[in-house]
Amino acid sequence: MICFWHFTNHEPGDERVFKKKAGLASLIKRLAVDWHDRDLLYQALTHSSCTYEGRQNGFDNNQRLEFLGDAVLDLAVSDFLFRSDPNCDEGDLTKMRAALVCEPSLARVARELGLGYCLRMGKGEERSGGRERPSILADAFEALLGAVYLDQGLVVASDLALRFLAPLIKDVLAGRLDRDYKTELQETVQQRGSEQVQYKIFREEGPDHNKTFTAGVLYKGELAGMGTGRSKKDAEQQAAKFALLNKIGGSK
């Protein structure tokens, strides 16, 4: 089994290795973090497929760091939004935070940072388009925040998160970022009683690197909406949007 990254036994002139080394150097420069333990960075860039195929170079995968980074991100974004507008109520703050910490937003930041280019992953995952998969990119950004938090503390990790989220924050405050339809649907349903909505994936089509998912949202045992997307989360968002506009929420 092979895990592709900059720590390999390829020849020095191997173009693949050179590009990944260059990408990692660029990432380190952009982060501008004076690491005490750079192994934390390497762990944040190690996808689980690499450790599943066989541990290489002694680094664990980034799943635990992702868990930690998720909490750091939520706190950083919540604190910033809370302080940015004293007149903003809880509901609007929740919607804005959801728009910023959702998978599409984090994947966008990760692409801008070139994280997919730096990830260390298994051969099979790379062949199936893992370096461009939104869920992997979003998770890697959260893992990176977790690593910075452990190495530098909460203030530095929060500042880093807000620095790279700045363009998206600007869009959210201006009302230009996509709505979180799943949150809106849940809030609408809760106003009507205790009944919850449920999501179900009905179909998966296409090869691993180019899948299309079809999701449905169920309310009171009935299908309230369906949607398609390149990931399960995107499909569920589209199903929630359909339900809001046509079934549950009415015209919005």
Chart the SSEs and their pairings.
Layout: E1 3-4, H1 15-31, H2 39-44, H3 48-53, H4 63-84, H5 90-101, H6 103-113, H7 115-118, E2 121-122, H8 123-127, H9 134-152, H10 154-173, H11 181-190, E3 197-205, E4 212-219, E5 222-229, H12 232-247
Helix pairs in contact: 4-5, 4-9, 4-10, 6-9, 9-10, 11-12
Number of helices: 12
Helix content: 55-70%
CATH first level of the largest domain: which class? Answer: Mainly Alpha
What is the count of structural domains? Answer: 2
Briefly note the CATH topology name of the largest domain. Ribonuclease iii, N-terminal Endonuclease Domain, Chain A
H/E element string?
A: EHHHHHHHEHHHHEEEH
Gyration radius, rounded: 20 Å
- CATH homology group of the largest domain: Ribonuclease III domain
Label the structural class.
mainly alpha
Whole-number average pLDDT?
84
Strand content range = 5-15%
Strand neighbour order, sheet with most strands: 3-4-5
| Main sheet specs | 3 strands, antiparallel
Please give the number of β-strands.
5
Distance between the termini: 52 Å
CATH architecture of the largest domain: Orthogonal Bundle
Question: Can you offer a commentary on this structure?
Answer:
This protein is 59% helix and 12% strand. The chain has helices at 15-31, 39-44, 48-53, 63-84, 90-101, 103-113, 115-118, 123-127, 134-152, 154-173, 181-190, 232-247; strands at 3-4, 121-122, 197-205, 212-219, 222-229. Helix 11 (181-190) crosses helix 12.
